[in-house]
């Protein structure tokens, strides 16, 4: 479905991704792992068109993404749920969900299709139904994360890009979000998941890529990565402990 071949991306003069190659097949959950500043979020920005391709190639459903605008990528079926949720605080929950439909093609049955999708995401995240008339800023952090994911689903994507969905959430909410991601996958949406909670990501993914300094250094099935001594030491509770404190935040122009 998605294939990056030797893809590179830059922030000004700084090359943030170096010849990254990865594939996502239809129906998979694939996770991209790594420390802060490794290039994980940059990879998603490249795929969704928020960052231009410097060299290499990207293809989605056998279409060259290199010269396609971000809006056109949404229309092709790529939805990006960015880190930090980015819900519209002055809009209601329902209005936020409606925004997610803006790039959908105008069909004869569009109204009925949108209503069916609203019912689907509210069944997936019941709080959104209960608080549909509330302003988004009044929701808890976990509810805002669920709203951001639901808004992405309202675009009816073939591929859902999720950037750090567990960021800042209490453990019980993290479990709820990951359970929802599994249900989304089981319903037929392919998912590319960027996540620092490596263990939980690998528990639900079929395959994973590990980035270090903008390069792919490991790629394997999720079970093999969970058993990999290098992964255990660096990302699964060994000598190195991941946190959500991003050193890139103090280095302008080099986000993760």
Structural write-up:
This protein has 256 residues and is α/β, with parallel strands linked by helices. The protein has one domain (2-242): P-loop containing nucleotide triphosphate hydrolases (Rossmann fold, 3-Layer(aba) Sandwich), CATH 3.40.50. 36% of the residues lie in helices and 24% in strands. The chain contains ten helices and ten strands. It has helices at 40-48, 70-76, 93-99, 110-124, 126-130, 141-153, 171-186, 198-204, 222-227, 229-234, and strands at 2-11, 14-24, 29-33, 55-60, 63-64, 78-81, 159-163, 190-194, 207-212, 215-221. The protein has a six-stranded mixed sheet, sandwiched between helices. A four-stranded antiparallel sheet has the order 2-1-4-5, covered by helices on one side. Strand 4 (55-60) and strand 5 (63-64) form a beta hairpin. Helix 3 packs parallel to helix 6 (141-153). The longest helix is centred in the last third of the chain and has 16 residues, at 171-186. The chain is globular and about 45 Å long. Residues 239-256 have low confidence and may be disordered.
Mind telling me the CATH superfamily name? P-loop containing nucleotide triphosphate hydrolases
Series of secondary-structure elements, N-terminal to C-terminal: EEEHEEHEHHHHEHEHEEHH
Low-pLDDT parts are 239-256
The main β sheet shows up as: 6 strands, mixed
Number-wise, the strands total 10
């Amino acid at each position: 479905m998605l294939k990056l071949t030797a893809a590179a991306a830059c922030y000004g003069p700084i090359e943030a991704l170096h010849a990254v190659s990865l594939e996502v097949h239809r129906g998979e959950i694939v996770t991209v792992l790594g420390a802060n500043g490794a290039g994980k979020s940059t990879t998603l920005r490249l795929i969704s068109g928020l960052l231009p391709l410097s060299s290499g190639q990207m293809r989605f459903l056998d279409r060259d993404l290199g010269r396609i605008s971000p809006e056109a990528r949404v229309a092709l079926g790529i939805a990006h749920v960015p880190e930090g949720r980015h819900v519209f605080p002055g809009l209601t929950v329902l209005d936020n969900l409606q925004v997610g439909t803006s790039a959908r093609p105008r069909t004869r049955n569009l109204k009925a299709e949108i209503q069916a999708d609203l019912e689907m995401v509210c069944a997936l995240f019941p709080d959104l139904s209960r608080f549909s008339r509330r302003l988004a800023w009044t929701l808890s952090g976990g509810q805002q994360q669920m709203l951001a994911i639901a808004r992405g689903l309202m675009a009816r994507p073939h591929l859902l890009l999720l950037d750090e969905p567990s960021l800042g959430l209490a453990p019980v909410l993290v479990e709820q979000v990951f359970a929802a991601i599994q249900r989304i996958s089981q319903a037929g949406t392919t998912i590319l998941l960027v996540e620092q909670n490596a263990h939980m990501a690998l528990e639900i993914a079929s395959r994973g890529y590990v980035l270090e300094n903008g390069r792919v250094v490991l790629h394997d099935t999720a079970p093999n990565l969970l058993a990999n001594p290098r992964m255990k030491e660096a990302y699964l509770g060994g000598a190195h402990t991941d946190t959500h404190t991003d050193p890139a935040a103090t280095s302008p122009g080099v986000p993760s």
